[in-house]
Amino acid sequence: MKLDAKKLRLSEHDPEVFKKIKRNPIYIIVDNVLDTYNIGSIFRLADAVAVEKVYLCGGTETPPHHRIKKASINTTEWVPWEYAPTAVAAIKDLRSKIKDLQVISIEQNERSVPYDKIDYTFPVALIIGHETDGVSKEAMDVSDYIAEMPMWGINISLNVMVSLGIMLYEVAKRLP
Hints:
This protein is α/β, with parallel strands linked by helices. The chain has a single domain, classed as Alpha/beta knot, CATH 3.40.1280. It has helices spanning about 5-10, 15-20, 35-50, 65-70, 85-95, 135-140, 160-170; strands spanning about 25-30, 50-55, 80-85, 100-105, 115, 125-130, 145-150. A seven-stranded parallel sheet has the order 3-2-1-6-4-7-5.
């Protein structure tokens, strides 16, 4: 099916349809991601795997924002999200509501383990961080795992939304 840009951005669904989407027990915590196109892409990924909620933290721009809207192709209209002052605040909020929440930072760190070697449990929260500085030390300190993708080339890192996409689909493969 070939869709043009206009068709992709149209939101022809009744808002009641959005409320009926079966959500998966996956949360995304966005820790100071600054690029609005990355943020919009994160919403598209969140919609693709029907995450429960996205937490936008710290200096992360929030909807409504024209560049987020454009990159998200309107998924900000039905993907649940909220703002938290820090990633740690988002984690504390989630852990106060959800028993046995597994928290995984996506980052290169001396504690990192290969992303495909983690024993994922649900519900799970995935943290992605600032494009240059990564996930905050404080968020990594309260994470159950720090996951890393192998890099075989010259470059030593991936874009945050690319890393998140890889992780989301790895986690989704293991949904009950």
